[in-house]
Amino acid sequence: MRQIYLIGVFLITTFIANAQTISLGKDDTRMDYTIEEFENQGNDFGKWISHYSDDTYTFHDLDSPPTTNKCSRKSSYEKKKKCLSEYIQSTVMNRYRVENAVKHGWVKLKLRFKIDEEGDVVDIVVEGSTDSAQKEAIKVLRGLRQLNPAIKDGKPVKIVYSMPIVAYVN
Question: What is the predicted pLDDT for the residue at 158?
């Protein structure tokens, strides 16, 4: 009997400089690329990633964090932020199928994505492990339900999330 352990999903704020797979756009315009494919389209990945956070805010800048409908009923900023983090972590842990990523061994991924002004998860960047592990992570993040966007000065704004996935298949 094979045993699968999802070790953890933690919300962090690391910068991914060596991404291997990216998913841009949303809905019908969504495209997945390896870095080589992205650059073969005439794009400069180094330049793109160096400006990845230019049009986004950090949690410290916000009036209200992005939320689910359930989280928006929480009484304080910190409780809303914690609720959203728990939602993202539990969704990823429940939906990530490590057996689709590797037959045996470790999966170690760094994920970075934006929640845009409409509450959609966009511009997913994945680093680490295998192509199949990266594609599984993108699939899971695409499946997050639409969120209520972050608010700054009464207007919806983009925010960046970063998180690792560490899993082991025995």
Answer: 93
Q: Can you say whether residue 153 is alpha, beta or left, with left for phi > 0 and alpha for psi between -120 and 50 degrees?
A: left
pLDDT for residue 137 is more than 60:
yes
Indicate left, alpha or beta for 79 from its phi (over 0: left) and psi (-120 to 50: alpha): alpha
With H, G, I as helix, E, B as strand and everything else as coil, classify residue 114: strand
Q: Which neighbouring-strand residues pair with 21?
A: 34, 126
Give the span between the Cα atoms of 130 and 135, in whole angstroms: 9
Overall pTM > 0.85:
no
- Residue 150: pLDDT over 80: yes
Please, are residues 6 and 137 in contact by the beta-carbon 8 Å criterion?
Answer: no
- The token pair at 41 is 């389209």
Alpha helix segments (H runs only) across 20-143 = 35-40, 45-50, 77-95, 98-101, 131-142
